[in-house]
Amino acid sequence: MPSLREALQQTHQILEASGIPDARLEAEVMVMNVMRMPRQDIFAQQELAVSSQQQETLSQVIDRRKQREPLAYILGYKEFYGVNLLVTPDVLIPRPETETLVEHALFMSLMGMEVAHLVIADVGTGTGAIALNLAIHLPAARIYATDSSEKALMVANYNIRRHNVADRVTLCHGDLMEPLPEPVDLIVANLPYIPTARIPTLQPEIQWEPAAALDGGEQGMDQITRLIAQASERLNPQGSILLEMDPEQVPLAEELARQYFPEAETGVERDLAGLDRVLTISRGVAEEA
Ligand SMILES: C[S@@+](CC[C@H](N)C(=O)[O-])C[C@H]1O[C@@H](n2cnc3c(N)ncnc32)[C@H](O)[C@@H]1O
């Protein structure tokens, strides 16, 4: 039977030879999951024997990953903003860029709004990543989370229950903000924003994710444009909108925001890589000034 050290080395080598990015890190995550051990233990117990059943499970995981299936789909979870979320191929795997959106939404909510009665919409919720983190950190807020995919909403439903926020997150099936029963104070959205023609040129892992979660139409702006147009009717007078997008799309989205919200102030937040990632549109700020 191989030791943990050997299993780790072999996994690393196979992944590297298959061209998997971050092969060492992924090897560690795979071994941790198969052995059901925390990270520190796989290093502390390097001589531990790996059973034949564990070897078999590990080789199944490696085989799937060699096909460039995303690790999150193989393991069935992804950590986002410190929270483990169920992910399946019916949902986009939450990205670190989106943590910028969550962080800024929390900042705006806590600094500038009447937090006690805050009503929020997370449009295109997928796993529920944004909605459930806002619910965790804003315990008095009510949140609507919409998606046009019923399968995605089933995953979100599992996640909001598992994290005990189902009493404050209402899942709604439908197009963008159409299913919302009332106007809201804050709209957050990470809608699909990749231009259709760019998708096949992106890394193989992305091709496993649902097209409806990625494809933003010819310029990548179809859903964002529709949301800005819809939002003017559904955002309360002091409300704000936070939209994640590609840095190249920011100027166009800002132009649209000025068209639909001439009274509002706009701003841009950068992600951890320093790229313009989140457009903010704040109705209240400009009116108060
Ligand atoms: C980029 S994914 C984001 C998922 C999640 N919010 C996140 O940040 O990880 C976009 C989501 O929007 C949903 N979606 C796409 N078009 C939509 C529409 N017209 N109305 C509602 N949801 C939509 C997709 O099904 C998908 O779950």
Automatic annotation (TrEMBL):
It comes from the Eukaryota. The lineage of its organism: Eukaryota, Metazoa, Porifera, Demospongiae, Heteroscleromorpha. It comes from Geodia barretti. InterPro entries: HemK-like, N5-glutamine_MTase, PrmC_N, RF_methyltr_PrmC, SAM-dependent_MTases_sf, Small_mtfrase_dom. Residues 6-76 form the Release factor glutamine methyltransferase N-terminal domain. Its EC number is 2.1.1.297. SUPFAM superfamilies: S-adenosyl-L-methionine-dependent methyltransferases (SSF53335). CDD domains: AdoMet_MTases. It is an enzyme of class 2 (transferase). Residues 107-193 form the Methyltransferase small domain. GO terms for molecular function: peptide chain release factor N(5)-glutamine methyltransferase activity. Keywords: Methyltransferase, S-adenosyl-L-methionine, Transferase. GO terms for biological process: methylation. It catalyses: L-glutaminyl-[peptide chain release factor] + S-adenosyl-L-methionine = N(5)-methyl-L-glutaminyl-[peptide chain release factor] + S-adenosyl-L-homocysteine + H(+). The keyword S-adenosyl-L-methionine applies. This is peptide chain release factor N(5)-glutamine methyltransferase. It holds the Pfam family MTS.
